[in-house]
Here is the input.
Amino acid sequence: QITLKESGPTLVKPTQTLTLTCTFSGFSLSTSGVGVGWIRQPPGKALEWLALIYWNDDKRYSPSLKSRLTITKDTSKNQVVLTMTNMDPVDTATYYCAHIYWGSDWFDPWGQGTLVTVSS
Amino acid sequence: EIVLTQSPATLSLSPGERATLSCRASQSVSSYLAWYQQKPGQAPRLLIYDASNRATGIPARFSGSGSGTDFTLTISSLEPEDFAVYYCQQRSNWGLFTFGPGTKVDIK
Here is the structure.
């Protein structure tokens, strides 16, 4: 059974850097074809894809946020870390991580999400 | 960047009725399209992948169709637990992803 769980600060100040960790079980990022993505959802709004990392360290970023995002993996800890720089109140959202396979078009399953509020 | 448009924004129906949700892409995404259901306070749940394949455990009343730029999610007969927000999502040839704005299916 694959499970994922997001962790990180619930409150960050404007201009700060956000660091989120996705800890997963039921698969390994050393296995060929496996990936983990990050998606966010502002309160009451739609989902927005942010970034993705595969087993081979191939990384993809949303073009609109690419300059602010970094995604990394720690295979030994079964973790994927997303950093987002220069946080702004509009970045207030629930941040989800999710499992994906190389070449597929779907995320499944998803973590429960973590709400991050950006406020001074 | 490929933009997804969903219509209608809100669909008001009664239990037992048929729901037809549309998703249109700004350029062809082949069959690289997925549908998700999201209920308040919950993470999205995968319903359909590759445009027409039901995910594991998804009831047969959910079906997906389409290819290229026009896609449809159909719920043949709405159950009380189906009232939720539905999102489509695509993967481009460059391995980038986008989501549509969502369609809310609410009780009439």
Observations:
- Chain B touches chain A through 27 residues (CB under 8 Å).
- Residues 33 and 90 of chain B are 5 Å apart (CA to CA).
